[in-house]
Automatic annotation (TrEMBL):
Protein's UniProt name: Beta-glucosidase
Keyword check for rRNA processing: no
Domain of life: Bacteria
Domain SbsA Ig-like: 49-133
Keywords assigned: Signal
Residue stretches making up the Glycoamylase-like domain: 322-537
Organism encoding this protein: Dyadobacter sediminis
């Protein structure tokens, strides 16, 4: 019996082991799955996509079929600032692909992020190996932001709105132009000269009355004549608009700025020629302007009688800035006025040796098949073609070096063709979005040009080129206003600058950029500022002295 019991025990043990070994194995965890591809609008463009349409389709393709119930929580769609975007998710390709689409059109020139998260599951309950983030930068919204106007009405609107910078935002005490819209009491002498030149335009366009314009100019000239600090008749770059005291532009630039002074005098002479009524009020205004003009000691800025003019002089640092005015840039007007002065004129030798450096400012090379008579390669920033020529009429103006309308037209066309060609590949540059000149940039300011291209477009560049490139400038104006108007159009016209590539839009206005827009559009439309300035008898004398010829000098 004991042996039989032992046999039964062993049999039971064996059966137990045998049954355990025949059980199913423990179930393994669901396998993870991964991404095979991402396509945005049928193009495999990687995980960072620019210039995306406003109704994009983002197709994620995975290595396995997906659980349809996980789609809702398995994806997120957010703006760059983190706001949720409503979207739909549709399965395709045997449920291994998901097409994500926003329910409503996205906003133009904005950032978005679409994410496939670990809440996404496969049909076997597998988990996504790692989150997949797809960043989207949308293209320009091509819809018109404002009702379409006739070309003439649009030009009227741009001039009127931009003029408000100088009229509504002019300093309440002095009437002068603030440097920028955040400058408080700091006004700018050169920018004020530009602002003064907009007043005859505004009167003729019926934005203001002649009496209003006269009153503003009486305030301005009275402040310049009686309150503003001057140095040998020249004005500082920056002035306190309430007191007239110098506001240093930099440590050593705390005295005279001859170039800014020339921009101011250009504006004052234009106003003097416009307010030509024989009555007492306008006669007194003309006399005040002539006193300010005749007090500038242009010849003294030769620094010990050298054959060149110097830009700066400081009562504390004297000539330490040591910046001769020469080459081809924005300063031709300085030499023209210095030669034209009835009281402190320079001889032609200063122009020849200083400004032209005996002709060394000649270029003569071709860029994009366009010959550039003067200046640096590709022409430099476009304000070279604007600031001196707000009053100086380049039409038919020639000397031994260039026809100055050809110079400025070709400069503008080179700038246009550079942006159209877009050799650095900036998103947004085109034949309707162009113009490189001095302007604000993110966290700074620079003189943009084809040789110093930061991807920043300044509306003043194309718009102030209207006399030279009317078709190209009109195309740019329509793009800026109708397509980008929700981004760059504001209280005083177009904001200073922007970058489609960087999704950056300045909120600033600068006097030296706003003024040329009003003035050069008017020179294109009627020639009024050119006609006024060139009617000054002193200017005619100075230009002839320097060897210029023009039908406007007769």
């Amino acid at each position: 019996m004991p042996c039989k019991n032992l046999f039964l025990i062993c049999l039971l043990i064996w059966l137990g082991i045998s049954c355990k070994s025949e059980k199913d194995p423990e179930p393994s965890a669901p396998s993870a799955f991964g991404l095979k591809s991402v396509e945005v609008n049928e193009i495999n463009s990687g995980l960072a996509v620019e210039n995306v349409s406003l109704n994009p389709k983002i197709r994620f393709t995975f290595s396995t079929a997906l659980n349809s119930t996980s789609i809702k929580n398995g994806f997120t769609f957010k703006t760059g600032s983190g706001e949720t975007v409503a979207f739909s998710g549709t399965l395709e390709n045997g449920d291994s692909s998901v097409v994500v689409e926003p329910v409503s059109a996205l906003n133009g020139l904005n950032s978005y992020m679409v994410t496939a998260t670990k809440f996404l599951k496969s049909v076997t309950n597998g988990t996504l190996q790692a989150e997949i983030k797809v960043s989207l930068q949308t293209q320009v919204d091509s819809t018109d932001k404002f009702p379409v106007l006739s070309d003439e009405a649009l030009l009227d609107l741009v001039q009127k709105q931009t003029f408000r910078y100088f009229w509504d935002f002019g300093h309440p005490v002095s009437g002068l132009a603030r440097e920028r819209n955040t400058s408080g009491d700091v006004v700018t002498s050169g920018g004020s000269g530009f602002g003064i030149m907009t007043i005859p335009v505004a009167i003729e366009r019926k934005f203001i009355t002649r009496a209003q314009g006269l009153e503003r100019l009486q305030k301005i000239t009275g402040f310049l004549k009686d309150k503003t600090q001057r140095f040998h008749g020249a004005f500082p770059h920056w002035i306190n608009g309430a007191t007239g005291a110098v506001v240093p532009f930099s440590t050593k630039d705390n005295g005279a700025d001859l170039v800014e002074t020339s921009f101011l005098i250009q504006g004052l002479l234009t106003a003097r020629q416009y307010f030509n009524d024989p009555g007492a009020a306008e006669t007194a205004l003309r006399n005040d302007i002539s006193k300010i003009w005749e007090a500038v000691e242009w010849d003294w800025f030769r620094k010990n009688n050298e054959n060149v003019l110097y830009w700066h002089w400081s009562p504390e640092y004297e000539w330490e800035m040591n910046h001769p005015i020469q080459g081809w840039n924005e300063c031709l007007i300085t030499y023209v006025l210095a030669a034209s002065s009835p009281t402190h004129a320079i001889p032609k030798s200063v122009y020849d040796s200083g400004w032209t450096d005996h002709g060394n400012f000649v270029n003569g090379k071709e860029y994009y098949g366009i010959k550039l008579p003067l200046g640096e390669p590709y022409g430099g920033p476009l304000f070279f073609a604007h600031y001196s020529f707000l009053g100086l009429n380049p039409t038919g103006l020639s000397d031994g070096f260039a026809n100055y309308f050809t110079q400025n037209k070709n400069h503008a066309l080179i700038n246009y063709n550079y942006c159209k060609t877009n050799p650095l590949g900036y998103n947004g540059y085109s034949d309707q979005c162009w113009g490189l000149t001095a302007s604000d940039i993110p966290d700074g300011y620079t003189a943009s040009s084809p040789s110093n291209d930061k991807g920043i477009i300044a509306p003043t560049a194309a718009l102030s080129s209207f006399p030279y490139t009317p078709a190209e400038s009109m195309k740019a104006l329509k793009f800026f206003y109708y397509k980008l108007g929700d981004k760059i159009w504001g209280e005083y016209g177009f904001h200073d600058s922007f970058s489609i590539d960087q999704r950056w839009f300045a909120d600033s206005y600068l006097a030296i950029d706003q003024g040329p827009i009003v003035i050069m559009i008017e020179n294109y439309r009627s020639g009024l500022p050119w006609n006024l300035f060139m009617s000054s008898p002193e200017v005619k004398t100075g230009l002839k002295k320097l060897g210029f010829t023009s039908p406007n000098l007769n």
